[in-house]
Amino acid sequence: MVYVFAHRGSSGTCPENTLSAYKEAVEGGSDGIEIDVQYTKDNELVVIHDNTVNRTTNGKGLVKDYTLKELKMLDAGCWFSEQFALERIPTIEEVLAFVKEKEGLLLNIELKNVVIHHEGIEERVIKLVRDYSLSNRVIFSSFNHISLHRISKLAPEIECAVITLDKQFKPWDYLASVGAAGWHPQWSKIDQHIINEMKKRNHPVRVYTINKVDQMEAFLTNDIEAIMTDYPGKAVQIRNEIRRTRGGE
C-alpha cells in the first residue's frame, strides 16, 4: 500500500499548517501529515512553512522576528477563507500532542533551516519527539542535508529523509553519505529505474507534491512508500477505488 501524507495538512481545503488542516487530513483517512518547523524570536518552535508570515497570516515580517505570543495573535486562517478566521499558528508541541492521540498516524517534520540558520534546532526537535514517545512515528526531512546528517548521529532511531529538487545520480549512495534512509524527490525529477533501485535497497521514496488525479492514480499504483499531497482526502478516495478495482469489487 502506498501511504498518503497530507502536505502541510489538508492544505488544498484548509489553511496550511493549522490544526484544522491536520484534523481534516485525519478525518479524510491520511496515513501521515507533513509539517514545517522553525524558531521564533524567543526560541520557541512553531509550525509554518515560509520564513515570513506575509503569505499565510494577516501579519508582515520574518517569523524569527516575532515572539511566540506575538505570533499567536496573528490570524492564520482568514487569508484562505473567512470560515477559518482566527485560526492560529500552532507550536510543534501542539502538533505532537495531536499526533500522539491518533494511533498509527505518521508525522514528517521538515526543518526549515536552509535560508535562515536555526542554531540547535536539531537537538530541540529530537528531545520533543522523544518526550512524546513518537520516535517510531516521526520522519525528519530537510533541504539542509548537513542538518540531517547531524540528526542521524544524534538520533539514529529516527528516520531521516533527504528532500531534493533536481534529478539525482545514484541517490542511494548519496543517502548513505548523509546518514539518511528516506528520499523525498520532486515528482517530475524521478524515473522508474531509480524507484526500482531504491526499493531494492530498502530506501523509502515519498514523492511530492501530487495534486492532480492522473498523478495520484499513477503514483498510488507505483512501488513507492508514499505520496505527499495537498488533497489527502481525494488521494485516499482514489486509493480506495484502486483497491476495489483490483479486488474485483
UniProtKB/TrEMBL annotation:
Secretion signal span: none
Highest taxon, organism lineage: Bacteria
GO biological process: lipid metabolic process
Domain GP-PDE: 2-239
Stored PROSITE patterns: GP_PDE
Pfam families registered for this protein in UniProt: GDPD
GO MF entries: phosphoric diester hydrolase activity
Protein's recorded name: Glycerophosphoryl diester phosphodiesterase
Source organism per UniProt: Oceanobacillus picturae
Phylogenetic lineage: Bacteria, Bacillati, Bacillota, Bacilli, Bacillales
